[in-house]
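Before drawing any conclusions, I looked closely at one protein's amino acid sequence and its backbone structure tokens, quoted below without any editing.
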Amino acid sequence: MNARRARSLAVKALAVTCCSRLALLERELAEPLPDLDGPAELVFGLLGPADAEEYAALVPGASPEEVSDRLHAGERGFAVRHRGRLVGVSWAAFGRVRVDYLRATLALQPDEALVHGAFVAPDMRGQHVSSQGGLYRLRWLRDAGYRRVMAAILPENTAGFGPPEKLGYRRIGTAYAIGPGPVRVARLVGRARNSPASRRRSQGRVGRPAVSRVDVRAGCDDFVDAVPG
């Protein structure tokens, strides 16, 4: 067993038994969006009920019902097609968002979104499908009136940071969920104090540190207010 696989198994074992963590990133939509190159044949749009069977065939472990369930819950699905074939998908969730890996719920503001569930067909990886699809998703959310987009990535997944970094996401901290079994206490640790969001929050607060408050629901009815920075 090589070192990378051993580390991956150790992380999964910890996540199941006592501790899980995700790196949190944010993207302010008031900032200019980048210009990215990609295949001219890519076509972008929203996922709908008619895409359910194709979605299930693309994403490992997914079912056609997953599309209708997520849409019914208020999420927005995003599709990337290459010559008519579905090759990339992702989701944006709003309000109180269940983060299964942490076994906790992240409470977003009305003008915030959490992107998740991104998947690209293996034969299309390395062809900018993820970054191009992410750019379309940011434009759609900006035009729909959203101010900030967040993403959560497994810290050990170093390749997963590439597309968000191209799109201007910044890492703001790490969300930890600690506790045995399904009962977890979640904490959001750290925020880049010099980020635009932090600087704006600090305006008019003479002598007070800039903070961002995130409500995280863990376990049954426990609420934890995590104040990073």
Confidence is low (pLDDT under 50) at residues 6-17, 192-229.
